[in-house]
Amino acid sequence: MFRRGLRIVIVILAIALAAAAILLWRDPYSLVRAEFARQRVSAGLSKESVVVGDHRWVYAYSDDAPANAPTVVMLHGFTGSKENWYLVAQRLRGHYRLLVPDLPGWGESQRIAGADYGFAAQSARVAAFIDAIGGKQHGVVLLGHSMGGGIAALAAARYPRDVARVGLIDAAGVRFADNRFGEQVLAGHNPFAVSDAQTLERYLGTVFVDARVRPAMPWPGADIYISHRRGEAAFEQGVLDRIGRGPESFLPGEEAAKIHQPALLLWCRQDAVIDASALDLYARQIPQASRVLLDGCGHMSVMEKPDAVAQAVTTLIEQGQPRR
């Protein structure tokens, strides 16, 4: 009886492994999605989708919060995804309602060929997403990292009824002091492009300072990710042409003067992408903003210093003051 049961278990495991192998062969990126799902569950988040306007949004969320708690919406950066925010979301969960979307065109959200995914178009989509998902009755706190910071700044400036408070984290959208990343963007290159192991290492080394928190990519994860990013190259270049050196490159910074809501500006001193000089440029436009400059982290402050970011967001919500 025992041997028969063992044989049955072995057969079931063999079938499961064969099915997994077939799935991985047909869709190698499913391995990365499985890891993302693990991270989401570990952070205590659920996943949902919604159609807003002409795009289907996929977002992680948590409603585990007091009834009158504000809603915190978190926007990721260029080449990023909702998963970048999970460590911060894990620390805020239980205190606030959380919405962590993949921006249209990115991650699991819908991409439409030929659509505009620049700052202005995305900020309008974010305002529509906030309207559709709700939460405005208790105030929406809009956080944006990198490209998402430029989108958040423009959304707060143009749609103040939708955004009660705004946090800009290592945000794009101003003419910061020259660095290698900025020079390459202005020269027409994509410094974040990944096409092989060498460029993957360059990408990770550019955005992370603390090697201990860099995403681990054991075989075959790295090869799968590299292949995926090769397929994204044309889309990435098109978006970067628009937000990095197009006519709306500095639109968020220009319109930030219209932001009267309580605000947060948070940077890492060692940011090699959006130089920390951007914090002062935004501060001139948003004088009421609290300012946080962290040490020992690079562009990915939301992953390298999640405790400090979560604390700064909590301070924004509890103590932030509007412009007088």
**Tally of separate helices:** 12
| Beginning-to-end CA distance, first to last residue | 80 Å
Topology as H/E string?
HHEEEHEHEHEHHHHEHEHH
Strands of the largest sheet, in order across it?
A: 1-2-4-3-5-6-7-8
Give me the secondary-structure category. Answer: alpha/beta
Shape estimate: globular
Rg result: 20 Å
Q: What percent of residues adopt helix (DSSP H or I)? A: 40-55%
Number of strands: 8
Share of residues in strands? 5-15%
pLDDT averaged over residues: 92
Q: Give the biggest beta sheet.
A: 8 strands, mixed
Low-confidence stretches: 11-25
Features:
324 residues; alpha/beta; eight-stranded mixed β-sheet; globular
Topology:
Layout: H1 2-26, H2 30-42, E1 46-52, E2 55-62, E3 71-75, H3 86-92, E4 97-101, H4 119-133, E5 140-145, H5 147-158, E6 165-169, H6 180-186, H7 197-207, H8 221-245, H9 251-255, E7 263-268, H10 277-285, E8 290-294, H11 301-304, H12 306-319
Parallel strand pairs: 3-4, 3-5, 5-6, 6-7, 7-8
Antiparallel strand pairs: 1-2, 2-4
Provide a descriptive summary of the structure in words.
This protein has 324 residues and is α/β, with parallel strands linked by helices. It is built from twelve helices and eight strands. An eight-stranded mixed sheet has the order 1-2-4-3-5-6-7-8, with helices on both faces.
Task: Give a concise summary.
The protein has 324 residues and is of the alpha/beta class.
